[in-house]
Amino acid sequence: MSVDSAPTQRAFATGLGNLPYPLLADFHPKGHVSQLFGIYNEERGVTMRAVIIIDKEGVIRFKKVYTQGLPNPSEILEELDRL
User: Fold this and answer.
1) Torsion over CA of 19, 44, 63 and 14, rounded to 10 degrees?
2) How far, in Å, CA of 25 to CA of 8, rounded?
3) For the whole model, what pTM was predicted?
Protein backbone atom coordinates (compact mmCIF):
# COMPACT_ATOMS: atom_id res chain seq x y z
CA MET A 1 0.00 0.00 0.00
CA SER A 2 1.20 3.45 -0.84
CA VAL A 3 -0.25 6.82 -1.77
CA ASP A 4 1.08 6.33 -5.31
CA SER A 5 -1.34 5.90 -8.20
CA ALA A 6 -2.19 2.46 -9.59
CA PRO A 7 -0.06 3.01 -12.76
CA THR A 8 2.93 3.99 -10.60
CA GLN A 9 2.45 0.87 -8.48
CA ARG A 10 2.21 -1.35 -11.58
CA ALA A 11 5.53 0.06 -12.79
CA PHE A 12 7.04 -0.57 -9.34
CA ALA A 13 5.76 -4.17 -9.28
CA THR A 14 7.04 -4.79 -12.79
CA GLY A 15 10.45 -3.41 -11.84
CA LEU A 16 10.63 -5.99 -9.06
CA GLY A 17 9.87 -8.85 -11.44
CA ASN A 18 6.05 -8.74 -11.30
CA LEU A 19 5.10 -9.09 -7.65
CA PRO A 20 2.75 -12.05 -7.12
CA TYR A 21 0.30 -10.11 -4.93
CA PRO A 22 -1.83 -6.99 -5.39
CA LEU A 23 -0.77 -3.55 -4.23
CA LEU A 24 -3.26 -1.06 -2.81
CA ALA A 25 -3.16 2.43 -4.33
CA ASP A 26 -4.19 4.66 -1.42
CA PHE A 27 -4.28 7.55 -3.87
CA HIS A 28 -7.69 9.19 -3.44
CA PRO A 29 -8.61 10.27 -0.94
CA LYS A 30 -4.87 10.39 -0.36
CA GLY A 31 -3.76 8.26 2.56
CA HIS A 32 -7.25 7.33 3.78
CA VAL A 33 -6.56 3.60 4.21
CA SER A 34 -3.05 4.27 5.53
CA GLN A 35 -4.59 6.51 8.19
CA LEU A 36 -6.97 3.72 9.21
CA PHE A 37 -3.97 1.43 9.73
CA GLY A 38 -2.04 4.13 11.60
CA ILE A 39 0.80 4.23 9.07
CA TYR A 40 0.24 7.56 7.32
CA ASN A 41 2.87 10.26 7.82
CA GLU A 42 0.87 13.51 7.73
CA GLU A 43 3.99 15.69 7.73
CA ARG A 44 5.44 14.09 4.60
CA GLY A 45 2.17 13.04 2.96
CA VAL A 46 3.29 9.45 2.48
CA THR A 47 2.64 6.00 3.84
CA MET A 48 5.30 4.85 6.31
CA ARG A 49 7.22 1.68 5.54
CA ALA A 50 5.45 -1.10 7.43
CA VAL A 51 4.54 -4.76 7.37
CA ILE A 52 0.99 -5.67 8.33
CA ILE A 53 -0.15 -9.28 8.35
CA ILE A 54 -3.92 -9.77 8.26
CA ASP A 55 -5.43 -13.24 8.67
CA LYS A 56 -8.27 -14.71 6.60
CA GLU A 57 -10.83 -13.38 9.09
CA GLY A 58 -9.53 -9.83 8.64
CA VAL A 59 -7.77 -9.66 12.02
CA ILE A 60 -4.42 -7.87 12.17
CA ARG A 61 -1.96 -10.44 13.53
CA PHE A 62 1.26 -8.48 13.09
CA LYS A 63 2.12 -4.84 12.50
CA LYS A 64 5.50 -3.21 12.54
CA VAL A 65 6.51 0.22 11.26
CA TYR A 66 10.09 0.60 10.04
CA THR A 67 11.56 4.07 10.55
CA GLN A 68 14.97 2.96 9.26
CA GLY A 69 16.19 0.07 7.19
CA LEU A 70 14.19 -2.72 5.62
CA PRO A 71 11.97 -5.40 7.12
CA ASN A 72 13.72 -8.58 8.22
CA PRO A 73 12.34 -11.40 6.03
CA SER A 74 13.03 -14.00 8.74
CA GLU A 75 10.94 -12.08 11.25
CA ILE A 76 8.04 -11.83 8.80
CA LEU A 77 8.23 -15.52 7.87
CA GLU A 78 8.18 -16.46 11.57
CA GLU A 79 5.01 -14.41 12.02
CA LEU A 80 3.41 -16.08 9.00
CA ASP A 81 4.30 -19.50 10.39
CA ARG A 82 2.36 -18.62 13.56
CA LEU A 83 -0.89 -18.24 11.60
Assistant:
1) 0
2) 9
3) 0.80
Q: Please state, in angstroms and rounded to a whole number, the distance separating the CA atoms of residues 14 and 64.
A: 25
Query: Who's near 61: CB < 8 A, 6+ residues apart?
Result: 53, 54, 55, 79, 82, 83
Strand locations in 1-83 (E): 40-41, 46-47, 50-54, 60-65
pLDDT single digits (tens) 27-49 = 999 999 999 999 999 999 999 99
Tell me whether strands 50-54 and 46-47 are parallel, antiparallel or unpaired: unpaired
Q: What's the rounded Cα separation, in Å, for the pair 12 and 9?
A: 5
* CA–centroid distance for 53 within its chain: 9
Residues 6 or more apart whose CB falls under 8 angstroms from that of 38 comprise 63
Residue type, 34: S
pLDDT at residue 21 in the model: 87
